[in-house]
C-alpha cells in the first residue's frame, strides 16, 4: 500500500466570545459562516468544489440540528455538497477533522471543509419534567371543568428551569460535574491550588503576548447586525494575577475544593475550520499547503478521570509513528482545567503511571513548559466545546510555522472519559 | 382536453369542462394588452357565450408575470380625443363581456398584475394569486398622466373600500399578494404547486364573491363623497399641482361626482381618460416612460450575468451599492481598511433588508451574500470590481495598479468617482482601456440612474458590459462622456449655485424652493443641497467651478467649515429633525416669484444646452432621460431639451438675455442654442 498524504491547506476561526450570562450576538452557524466565508473566499477553488463539509457541534440549537448542512448551504457550497455533523463532546471539532482525514485516506473525498462551532451562550433552558407532564395533561383536558382542574394543579416548582448547559457539563453515568473530575485529578497528582492558579495566569499572559504580537491572524473578524465588530478573544484578562485568582471560591466541591472559575476554561462561543485535501486535490487546484496530518488516535479512560484522556491518546499514537516526546516541537493540549493540564503533564513524566498504563519501561517524558500551549489556551480564550478541537489542530500548525519547527501534537480531553490526539507536520 | 390556438391566446377545455384562457403575447417577453389581444379575446368570449362552460380561468403562459398592462406603444399613436375614446370604449366592451359571462370566472395571477391586467382580473368573479414576492398588483396609469380606463375605476369599488381604492389609483403604488388579499382585492393566494388546482376548486364550488367592507357604503354615499374628495384634493395638492398633473384631480372628480350607476360611471371613465390622454402632461409622461425603455434597451438582450461584485470603500456610497446589489440577488464582498466602516455598512444593510424583505429566511440569505472583506479576498473572484473610496486621484491610481494583477482576466474594473475624469485615473494600469465609470447616485436605493462614464480610452466592450450590469441590477444606464461633472452633476450644480446666490441676495429659502417646485421640480434646490450634504455639494461645485469658471457662493464654504452640512448634521439651510425638514414659520407669499424661477430654471436649461452642444451624451433623448432620472427634473415637462423645443427658443433666449444684462456672464447663452433656433 502506498502512503497517502492528507494535507491541511488553510484554516481560520472566529474570535472566541465569552458567554456573559445571556445569549451572545451570534448563533453557532453565524460564527461558522463568518469564520469560514473568508477562508473559502481566499482559496483558488469555488465552495461548490468541496466534496463534503463536516462540522463538530455538541449542542446545535433546535433550528439547526444538522448544523453542518446549515453552514454548508449558508457558505454557498451549493445543494450538491453533502454535509454532516459529528458529536464527540469536547472533541467534536477534532472528530470532524479526523473524519475528513479518514475519508481522504480511504479515497472517498479529496477536498473537505472540517471544523467545529458552538454557541454555548445559546444553550437552551428547558421546562422540567413536572411542567412537561402538566402541559401534556392540559392538552388532554377537553371540557372547561377538566381544564380548570388541571390548572389548579400547577405548582411553583414546575417553573424551575433545567439549564441545558449544566446538564451537558455533568457526566450522565457517574454523575460528576466536569469540575469534580478535575478535583479528582488534583487529588491523584497532588496538585495545589497555587499551581493551578499560576498556570491559569500564565495562560492569560501568553494570550495577551500572542495578541500583542499579532500571532492570531487566524481570527476572522465577526460583525453583528448592530454595527459592532468582534476581532479578538474577549475572555482574556491581561490583569490576571495569582493574588486575584486566590480570592475566588471553588465552584464544584464547596467549600474546600480547588477548582475555581479562574482556573477553568471559560464558557464561550466560537467556531474554527480547516480545509483538508488529498494529493490529487492539491495538484488539481494548485493549493499552497500549511502542513500534513500524519496520524490521529482516540483513547478512553475512567469517566471520573476524563482529563487524562490526552495522555492515553498521544502515547500510542507517537509510538506507532516511531516518534518520541523529543521529536515533538510544540504541543497544544486543550485547557479544560488547569488541574487537568497539569495532571496530564504529571502523568506523562510519571514512570509508574506510564508503566502501569502503557507497559513502558520508563516515563514518556516531560513536556517543556515553553513548548506547551505557548499562546495560551481555553482558560484565557475559552472552550467552545464543538470548536476547540479544530482550533488546536490548526493553531499547532501556525505555531510550527512561526517557529520554523516540524512536528506538533494537538490533543484534547473529552467529557465522558476519552481523549483525542492529532499529529501534524509543518510543510512550509 | 381540447385546445385551440390564437396568435396570443391558448384556449383549453379540461375534463371538468372548465375553459382555460392562457395569454401568451407573441414577440414580447411580458403580456401586454394590445389591440390584437383584445380582438382575439372578443372572439373567444363570443364563442364561450354560445357554448357556456362550467367555468373560465384566465391566466398567463409566460414564466414570469400575469399581465403588465396596456400597450403603451399603441398609446403614443393616439392622435385625438375621439380616437382615444374609441380605443377605450372597445377595451371596456370586452371587459363587460367577460364580466357578464353567465358561468363563474377566475383570474389566476401568476406574477405581476398591473394596469389593464388588474382591470381584466377585476372583471372576473374571483381572483387567485401566486404567493411569491414577485406577485405585485398596481394601477400605475396615474404615472402616465391618465387613470384606469378599462373599468378599473368602476369595478374596484366592488371589492375595496374607497379609501384604499383611491389611494391605489392616485399613487400607482403596488401591493404584494398578502396585502392584496387582506385589502379584498383578491380572494385567495396559493403556492405554485396549488395555484391552478385551487382555481379549479373555486370554479367548481362557487364560493360567495368578496365584497367591499361594510363601512364602504357610508364612505361611498352621496353625502360623504364630496367631503372626502375635498380632503383628498388637499392631500394631493401637497404633492402635485393640478396645472402640472390633472389626472389625479380628474380621478377624484370621477369618483366624487359619478359613483353610483356602474354603466354611467363607465361612460364617464372613458370620457375622462380620453380627455386626459391628449394633455401635454400625459404625452410627456408617456415620453418619460418610453425614455426609460430606451435606456433599458441600451443593454444587450442576453448578456452574461454578473454574480459577484467586489466593492472597495465601505462609506455610504460603497455600502449602499453593496446593499443594492445584494437586494438584486448578487453576492458582494465589501472591502475597507476600517472595521468600523464595515460594521456600519452591515448595520445599514441589515436595516434595509429587514424593512424590505421582512421574512427572516430571506433576510438571512441576503446577509449571507453580504460579506465584509477587510483583506480583499473577493478581488480575485469578483466579476466586477467597483471602487468607491474617497475622491483622491493619487490613492485611486495606486489602488488600481495594485488591483490589476489580482483581478480576473475578464473582470470589469469600475470607479464610482463623481468628479474625476476617467482619463486621469486610468494610466496607472497596464491596460487603461478596461477602466470605466459607474456613477451611482445617492441614495442608491431610490435613484434609478447610473451614469456609465466613458473615458476616451475606455474599450466600447467594457462600456457595454457596464451598461449590461446597470440593467441587471435594475438601474437605468446612461452613457456619458468623461467631462467634469459628467451630465447630472454638471447640470445640477449651476442651478444649486444660483439658489445660493439668490439666498445671498436676500431671498428666503422658502421663496427660492417654492419657485422651483412651482416649475415642477420635486424638491427645491435649497432642500436638495441639504439632502445631498453641503460638503459633498461643495466638493463637486469646486471641481466644476475650476473646470467651467463660475463663482461659488461664499455661504456654502462658511457653512461647511462650521459643520453645517444639511440633513445629515441636523442643520443646513433648513433645520432637520429625525431626517425631516423643519419648515420655518415665516409669512412669505405663497406665490412663486417669476424672476427667481427664471434665474433657477434658465441656468439649468442653459447648462443642459451646453451639454447637448458638447455631446456629453449621445442624443437629445438620452439627455432628457438622464436629467429626468438623475435630477428629478419636472417629468411632466418631458425633459429640458423637450421643454426648450416645445416652448420655442425665442422667448427663453429673450429672458436669458435679460438675465445676462442684469446678472452677468453666467447667464450668457451657450453657443448650443443656435442648434435649436428655427
Structure description:
The complex is a heterodimer of chains A (428) and B (678). In chain A, strands 1, 2, 3, 4, 5, 10, 11, 12, 13 and 14 form a 10-stranded mixed beta sheet that branches. Chain A is built from 15 helices and 14 strands. In chain A, 37% of the residues lie in helices and 18% in strands. In chain A, helix 3 (92-105) crosses helix 15 (385-402). Chain B folds into 3 domains: 2-278, Alpha-Beta Complex (2-enoyl-CoA Hydratase, Chain A, domain 1), CATH 3.90.226; 308-481, Rossmann fold, CATH 3.40.50; 489-615 and 648-675, N-(1-d-carboxylethyl)-l-norvaline Dehydrogenase, domain 2. Chain B has 27 helices and 20 strands. In chain B, a hairpin with an 8-residue loop joins strand 16 (435-440) and strand 17. In chain B, helix 13 (280-296) crosses helix 25, helix 19 (488-504) crosses helix 21 and helix 19 runs antiparallel to helix 24. The longest helix of chain B is centred in the C-terminal third of the chain and has 20 residues, at 594-613. Chain B starts with a strand and ends in a 15-residue tail after the last helix.
Mean pLDDT over the residues of chain B? 94
What is the fourth-level CATH superfamily of the largest domain in chain B? 2-enoyl-CoA Hydratase, Chain A, domain 1
**Main sheet properties of chain A:** 10 strands, mixed
CATH topology of the largest domain in chain B: 2-enoyl-CoA Hydratase, Chain A, domain 1
Greatest contact between two chains:
A-B, 15 and 23 residues
- Unreliable runs of chain B: none
Residue share in helices of chain A? 25-40%
Overall outline of chain A: globular
The overall pLDDT average of chain A reads: 95
Q: If you compute it from the alpha carbons, what radius of gyration of chain B comes out, rounded to the nearest whole angstrom?
A: 27 Å
Distance between the termini of chain B: 65 Å
Amino acid at each position: 500500500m502506498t502512503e497517502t498524504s492528507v494535507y491541511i491547506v488553510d484554516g481560520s476561526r472566529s474570535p472566541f466570545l465569552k458567554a456573559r450570562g445571556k445569549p451572545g450576538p451570534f448563533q453557532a452557524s453565524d460564527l461558522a459562516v463568518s469564520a469560514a466565508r473568508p477562508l473559502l473566499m481566499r482559496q483558488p477553488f469555488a465552495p461548490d468544489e468541496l466534496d463534503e463539509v463536516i462540522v463538530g457541534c455538541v449542542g446545535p440549537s433546535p433550528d439547526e440540528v444538522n448544523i453542518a448542512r446549515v453552514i454548508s448551504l449558508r457558505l454557498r457550497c451549493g445543494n450538491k455538497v453533502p454535509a454532516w455533523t459529528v458529536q464527540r463532546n469536547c472533541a467534536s471539532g477534532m472528530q470532524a477533522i479526523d473524519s475528513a482525514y479518514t475519508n481522504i485516506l480511504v479515497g472517498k473525498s479529496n477536498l473537505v471543509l472540517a471544523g467545529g462551532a458552538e454557541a454555548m451562550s445559546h444553550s437552551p433552558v428547558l421546562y422540567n419534567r413536572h411542567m412537561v407532564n402538566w402541559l401534556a395533561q392540559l392538552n388532554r383536558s377537553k371540557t372547561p371543568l377538566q381544564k380548570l382542574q388541571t390548572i389548579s394543579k400547577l405548582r411553583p416548582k414546575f417553573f424551575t428551569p433545567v439549564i441545558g448547559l449544566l446538564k451537558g457539563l455533568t457526566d450522565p453515568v457517574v454523575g460528576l460535574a466536569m469540575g469534580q473530575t478535575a478535583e479528582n485529578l488534583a487529588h491523584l497528582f497532588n496538585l495545589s491550588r497555587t499551581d493551578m492558579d499560576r498556570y491559569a495566569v500564565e495562560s492569560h499572559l501568553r494570550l495577551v503576548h500572542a495578541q500583542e504580537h499579532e500571532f492570531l491572524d487566524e481570527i476572522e473578524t465577526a460583525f453583528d447586525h448592530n454595527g459592532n465588530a468582534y476581532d479578538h478573544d474577549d475572555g482574556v484578562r491581561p490583569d490576571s494575577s495569582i493574588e486575584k485568582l486566590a480570592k475566588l471560591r471553588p465552584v464544584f466541591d464547596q467549600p474546600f475544593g480547588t477548582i475555581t472559575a479562574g482556573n477553568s476554561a471559560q464558557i464561550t462561543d466560537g467556531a474554527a475550520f480547516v480545509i483538508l485535501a488529498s494529493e490529487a486535490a492539491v495538484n488539481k487546484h494548485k493549493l499552497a499547503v500549511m502542513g500534513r496530518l500524519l496520524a490521529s488516535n482516540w483513547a478512553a479512560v475512567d469517566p471520573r478521570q476524563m482529563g487524562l484522556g490526552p495522555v492515553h491518546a498521544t502515547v500510542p499514537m507517537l509510538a506507532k509513528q516511531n516518534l518520541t516526546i523529543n521529536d515533538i516541537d510544540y504541543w497544544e493540549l486543550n485547557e479544560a482545567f488547569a488541574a487537568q493540564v497539569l495532571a496530564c503533564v504529571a502523568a506523562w513524566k510519571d514512570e509508574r503511571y506510564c508503566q502501569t498504563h502503557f507497559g513502558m519501561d520508563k516515563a514518556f517524558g516531560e513536556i517543556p513548559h515553553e513548548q506547551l500551549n505557548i499562546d495560551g489556551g481555553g482558560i484565557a480564550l475559552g472552550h467552545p466545546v464543538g470548536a476547540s478541537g479544530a482550533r488546536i489542530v490548526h493553531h499547532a500548525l501556525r505555531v510550527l510555522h512561526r517557529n520554523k519547527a516540524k512536528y506538533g501534537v494537538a490533543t484534547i480531553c473529552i467529557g465522558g472519559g476519552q481523549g483525542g490526539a492529532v499529529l501534524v507536520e509543518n510543510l512550509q | 382536453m381540447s385546445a385551440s390556438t390564437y396568435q396570443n391566446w391558448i384556449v383549453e377545455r379540461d375534463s371538468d369542462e372548465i375553459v382555460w384562457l392562457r395569454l401568451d403575447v407573441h414577440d414580447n417577453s411580458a403580456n401586454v394588452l394590445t389591440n390584437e389581444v383584445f380582438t382575439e379575446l372578443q372572439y373567444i368570449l363570443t364563442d364561450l357565450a354560445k357554448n357556456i362552460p362550467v367555468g373560465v380561468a384566465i391566466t398567463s403562459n409566460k414564466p414570469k408575470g400575469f399581465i403588465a398592462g396596456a400597450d403603451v406603444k399603441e398609446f403614443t399613436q393616439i392622435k385625438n380625443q375621439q380616437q382615444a375614446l374609441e380605443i377605450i370604449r372597445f377595451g371596456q366592451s370586452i371587459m363587460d363581456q367577460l364580466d357578464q359571462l353567465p358561468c363563474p370566472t377566475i383570474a389566476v395571477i401568476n406574477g405581476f398584475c398591473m394596469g389593464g391586467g388588474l382591470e381584466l382580473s377585476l372583471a372576473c368573479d374571483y381572483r387567485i394569486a401566486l404567493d411569491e414576492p414577485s406577485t405585485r398588483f398596481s394601477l400605475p396609469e396615474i404615472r402616465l398622466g391618465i387613470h384606469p380606463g378599462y373599468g378599473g375605476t368602476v369595478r374596484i369599488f366592488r371589492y375595496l373600500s374607497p379609501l384604499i381604492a383611491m389611494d391605489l389609483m392616485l399613487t400607482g403604488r403596488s401591493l404584494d399578494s398578502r396585502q392584496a388579499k387582506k385589502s379584498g382585492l383578491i380572494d385567495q393566494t396559493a403556492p405554485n404547486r396549488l395555484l391552478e388546482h385551487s382555481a379549479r376548486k373555486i370554479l367548481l364550488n362557487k364560493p360567495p364573491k368578496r365584497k367591499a367592507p361594510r363601512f364602504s357604503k357610508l364612505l361611498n354615499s352621496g353625502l360623504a363623497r364630496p367631503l372626502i374628495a375635498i380632503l383628498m384634493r388637499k392631500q394631493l395638492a401637497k404633492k402635485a399641482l393640478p396645472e402640472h398633473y390633472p389626472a389625479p384631480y380628474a380621478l377624484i372628480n370621477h369618483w366624487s361626482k359619478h359613483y353610483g350607476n356602474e354603466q354611467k360611471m363607465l361612460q364617464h371613465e372613458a370620457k375622462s381618460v380620453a380627455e386626459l390622454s391628449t394633455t401635454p402632461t400625459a404625452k410627456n409622461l408617456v415620453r418619460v416612460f418610453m425614455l426609460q425603455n430606451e435606456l433599458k434597451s441600451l443593454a444587450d438582450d442576453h448578456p452574461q450575468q454578473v454574480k459577484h461584485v467586489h466593492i472597495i470603500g465601505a462609506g455610504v456610497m460603497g455600502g449602499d451599492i453593496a446593499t443594492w446589489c445584494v437586494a438584486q440577488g448578487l453576492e458582494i464582498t465589501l472591502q475597507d481598511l476600517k472595521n468600523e466602516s464595515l460594521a456600519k455598512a452591515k448595520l445599514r444593510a441589515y436595516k434595509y433588508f429587514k424593512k424590505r424583505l421582512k421574512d427572516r429566511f430571506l433576510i438571512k440569505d441576503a446577509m449571507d451574500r453580504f460579506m465584509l472583506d477587510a483583506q480583499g479576498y473577493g478581488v480575485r473572484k469578483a466579476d466586477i470590481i467597483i471602487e468607491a473610496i474617497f475622491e483622491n486621484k493619487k490613492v485611486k491610481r495606486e489602488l488600481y495598479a495594485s488591483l490589476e494583477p489580482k483581478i480576473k482576466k475578464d473582470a470589469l474594473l469600475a470607479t464610482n468617482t463623481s468628479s474625476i475624469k476617467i482619463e486621469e485615473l486610468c494610466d496607472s494600469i497596464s491596460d487603461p482601456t478596461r477602466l470605466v465609470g459607474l456613477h451611482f447616485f445617492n441614495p442608491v436605493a431610490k435613484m434609478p440612474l447610473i451614469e456609465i462614464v466613458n473615458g476616451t480610452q475606455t474599450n466600447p466592450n467594457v462600456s457595454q458590459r457596464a451598461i449590461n450590469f446597470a440593467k441587471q441590477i435594475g438601474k437605468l444606464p446612461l452613457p456619458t462622456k468623461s467631462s467634469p461633472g459628467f451630465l447630472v452633476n454638471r447640470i445640477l450644480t449651476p442651478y444649486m449655485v444660483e439658489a445660493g446666490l439668490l439666498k445671498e441676495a436676500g431671498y428666503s429659502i422658502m421663496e427660492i424652493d417654492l419657485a422651483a417646485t412651482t416649475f415642477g421640480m420635486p424638491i427645491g434646490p435649497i432642500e436638495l443641497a441639504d439632502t445631498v450634504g453641503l460638503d459633498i455639494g461643495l466638493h463637486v461645485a469646486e471641481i466644476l467651478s475650476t473646470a467651467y469658471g463660475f463663482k461659488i457662493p461664499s455661504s456654502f464654504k462658511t457653512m461647511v467649515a462650521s459643520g453645517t452640512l444639511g440633513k445629515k448634521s441636523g442643520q443646513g439651510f433648513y433645520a432637520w429633525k429625525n431626517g425631516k425638514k423643519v419648515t420655518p414659520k415665516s409669512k412669505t407669499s405663497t406665490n412663486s416669484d417669476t424672476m427667481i424661477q427664471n434665474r433657477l430654471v434658465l441656468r439649468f436649461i442653459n447648462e443642459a444646452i451646453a451639454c447637448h452642444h458638447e455631446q456629453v451624451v449621445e442624443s437629445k433623448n438620452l439627455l432628457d432621460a438622464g436629467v429626468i432620472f438623475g435630477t428629478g427634473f419636472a417629468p411632466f415637462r418631458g425633459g429640458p431639451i423637450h421643454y426648450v423645443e416645445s416652448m420655442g427658443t425665442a422667448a427663453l433666449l429673450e429672458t436669458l438675455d435679460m438675465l445676462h444684462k442684469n446678472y452677468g456672464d453666467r447667464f450668457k447663452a451657450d453657443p448650443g442654442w443656435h442648434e435649436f433656433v428655427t
